[in-house]
Amino acid sequence: MGADEVEGVSADNHNRDSDIELIALHTEKLPQNASLNKRRTAKLKVSNSSSAIDLSHGKSQELQDEQKEPEEDYVEVTMDFQGDSVALHSVKTVTGTGTGNNDDGEDEKRVLLGKGMEKKRSFGASIVRTASIRMKHVSQELKRLTSFSNSKQVGPEKVYDRTKSAASHALIGLKFINKKTDGDVGVGWFEVEKQFEILTNSREDGLLHRSLFAKCIGMNKESEAFAGELFDAMSRRRNIHGDSINKAQLKDFWDQISDQSFDSRLRTFFDMVDKDADGRITEEEIKQIICLSATTNKLSNIQKQAEEYAALIMEELDPDGTGFIMVNDLEILLLHGPTHSTRGDSKYLSQMLSIKLKATYEYNPVRKRYRDAIYFLQDNWQRTWILVLWIGVMCGLFAYKFMQYRRKAAYEVMGHCVCMAKGAAETLKLNMAIILLPVCRNTITWLRNKTKLGIAVPFDDNLNFHKVIAVAIAIGVGVHAVYHLTCDFPRLLHANSEKYKLMEPFFGNQPTNYWHFVKSWEGVTGISMVVLMTIAFTLASPWLRRGRVKLPKPLNSLTGFNAFWYSHHLFVFVYILLVVHGIKLYLTKEWYKKTTWMYLAIPIIIYALERLTRALRSSIKPVRILKVAVYPGNVLALHMSKPQGFRYKSGQYMFINCAAVSPFEWHPFSITSAPGDDYLSVHIRTLGDWTRSLRVKFSESCLPPTHGKSGLLRAECMQGDTSPSTLPKVLIDGPYGAPAQDYKQYEVVLLVGLGIGATPMISILKDIVNNFKAMEEDEGNSIEEGTSGKSPRHSQHKKTSLSNFKTKRAYFYWVTREQGSFDWFKGVMNEVAEEDHRGAIELHNYCTSVYEEGDARSALIAMLQSLNHAKNGVDIVSGTRVKSHFAKPNWRSVYKRIALNHPQARVGVFYCGPPAITKELRQLASDFSHNTTTKYDFHKENF
After folding, report:
1. Considering the chain, what is the average pLDDT of its residues?
2. Which of 50, 57, 64, 490 is within CB 3.0–4.6 Å of 21 for a Cys-Cys bond?
3. pLDDT above 90: residue 392
4. Interval 662-666 mean pLDDT
5. What one-character-per-residue DSSP string does 194-252 give?
């Protein structure tokens, strides 16, 4: 199976029942009284073209292998029939069937993942694996054909055993405990028993109460209600009355929960739903378990529609209208879930993705460090040369100033202290000048867009470089101040009269006390700068700026973005004091040797022009509010008119000012509209004091949403109308360059957004769709113009505008904690799903509040998701056409899958969101770039 076939496996599985043809079936000789317990063996032909299952029942017969085509593969499958159940006994390969040509296919798959990826399975194993995956369809069909009755009655003597059947995948799909039932069950019970002793230690009766059952078996607090229902179900089955159990009963409960048999788990789940223990599940009972699952997984929308979804399940499993369903019906529903996989990948591809990077250990420490250094330089060569240049210039300035004062008379009195202080001062001048350049956003955007410097200069790291320089300034200030205050000044005070005569031209008469130096211009300005810098640096720390530290009143006003913003503007006074400090020097009297102003002149002029440009641009480009919506998760969406001449790229951001909140503060937000849209939009999540006040101001002016529209509150004005007078006025400034704007340079892009971090990716998705549309129109116009003889000028203009667009494939992963978050971009997700005629965009939504696939707490949600999407084409979690995944993504598998699909490609990875997973995504990009033929370029959004 080649790479193209691998990509198509998932789609094929949805469009046909099976691609395995049953060539022959023979039954072993069994006693007459064992007619219901049979073992049958079949030889299967694995074919990529077959769309039916041919069942031939009869006596054992010899297959004529020589008549088969050499390119077809065969496996011998043995199944056990017991009643209406089917169990897979064994799968064996059949030799001599012309399989030699397929070794190249397996090698091709291995090459797709590069030399650094180990070959997981041999050719024979790949046949067994493929057949096992597809046997699910055969097993279900055989079960249906061999069923004696469609009656809903299941006798008490019914014994289920699916541990070897095609239902074995459900063993990972109905786990009640994830961590403690894996592996050694005895170890799991040891932990539960220890927890039991702790929880019952304070009780005289030594019993475990129902409310503590979840904690005892290792479930979290959010699952207490689910654990309570599980407790009740097992108590009903054992006729236990009351809300407490002893250790022996707990052991019995634990044995049932940790039972690896699928049928035991199925029975446990059935008992949870069947609250009256009559062996039948009614619609009301289904509704109750839906509400329980929705509550456990924090899916409020599903809880509101529980009645509708219960009716959907009854419609599916009770077509005769009997009013109830049985355990075998529940099994059918559970087994049908995986046929509509929410993962979008075939089982075969999932097996391929289990291949891990080969851990190559280098025993020679020198070679290991050399290899690591080479990898580091490959990944960070842009940052490296900038830092090396910067550090080299600082070292040169420090050495120059050190040696200059080493030869002066001041060295005779103050020694090396004056050299160290002056050397640190010289680096301070440099750093106080260049620290302004990384925050000159207009200049950086112009350099990024209009020049080729982006190839060698890491503009994406401008804020990181700003922070690094700030650290260097703090070190320089420390060295300069400490050597002056603790070394230079004391030496001047205690110098003998002969030596001090050398200093009289600079300091005058020898001072008698330390206060003489402190009250001077140099002392006052220097100490004032240190105080102001300390305040600004402290309030700029992530703990205070992001409000992670909770301080008592009134100190709580020192946390948050407002405190950071206002304290950072204290640097206006710092620069004034720095210029004064640089003019009033003790040891330098000539004006041309006082170089502080020379360092600062050009950066300050550039920064002043930047601020002036922002003020003028925001005032001459007013915007009107077209639409306002407040969504779940405290997200404010603003749709504004686009000013004349406002041109931007997807992925860029702009600053917003609202005088009603603060006339001075400007805050950056990613633009969520596409460049082709006739409006500007931003989505602002309430994370701090400024955004909270902004949401309150607009919420007060909005009205409840009309029927069928999302958003808790809404205000709109039609085109041509003026904005409602009650809406706050907004000013914008931008656009500004961002890492995500360079996505067009890559043929394959991986877009990752966590929470509100999806905003730049939404704009990119819309832009990709718009570019695809423009390409299709351009192709149509080219054909038209070719046949009509029209001038191709218009077509040539379009081709020029699309020449920079290289993207052919996009993978979008959006991870959010709340179900309501999907309302933010519901319309965009549906639009992309509908308009992407080329199938070039893969959309993946992840809701981390839902327990991972395979957990019993989310099993019913997965069933409902498959049923509703099959019937209505809508996902019950996101409310869009895109099926949602549960829990967090396995990022390693995501990278592997893209490497498999795009060998020899360069993939642009663009991430926006909290820094929690930045290191993991960056490291994976590096690992796969070094060990596969696919190269990943990682970009992190920074504001």
Report:
1. 74
2. 50
3. yes
4. 83
5. HHHHHHHTT-SS-PEEGGGHHHHHT--GGGHHHHHHHHHHHHHHTT--SSEE-HHHHHH
